[in-house]
Amino acid sequence: MTERPGNAAMRANDILHLFLILLAAWLMLTSSLHWQEVTSGVLLSLILSLFLAKGYAGLGLPPLSLVRLWRLGVYFVVLFWEILKANVDVAYRVLHPGLPIKPGIVVIKTRLSQDAAKVLLANSITLTPGTFTLDIQKDELLIHWIYVRSEDTAEATRMIAGRFEKHLEAVFA
After folding, report:
1. Helices (H), strands (E): how many in the chain?
2. Which of 112, 114, 115, 149 would you label with 136, given CA atoms 20 to 30 Å apart?
3. Whether the model pTM is above 0.85
């Protein structure tokens, strides 16, 4: 079977990207730069990259670049800030004597087209206390909301996903 021109270069690129991601994860998890742990991480990351590159390429993730990594970093800062705000909001609702909740399920629409971007959006919504993503159907997400402020799809989308969507669009552009 012959490969199309550029396939070998694309596969090598996928292997390199996956290797760097796995090695970074290894270094963060071990919190050590001891030569034995770094060597183990390099070897394990290389072996896994060789075996998993085809599946990684099938995810349809955009190619890595410094600009994209910067945008992803900004996204994680925004996500962290939203998680903190939502934690305070949920704590207030739990500690308030009247327990001001109005739970319900709302549908929001997303402008994101890539499946990986939609999954990241859904997980970000779920990580934010007070909301939980139940399902993803094409461009709609089914969300359980601890305090339904609006049942209007456009308004609920703005309130729940708007804070994440613009940053994800920049990452996946």
Report:
1. 6, 3
2. 149
3. no
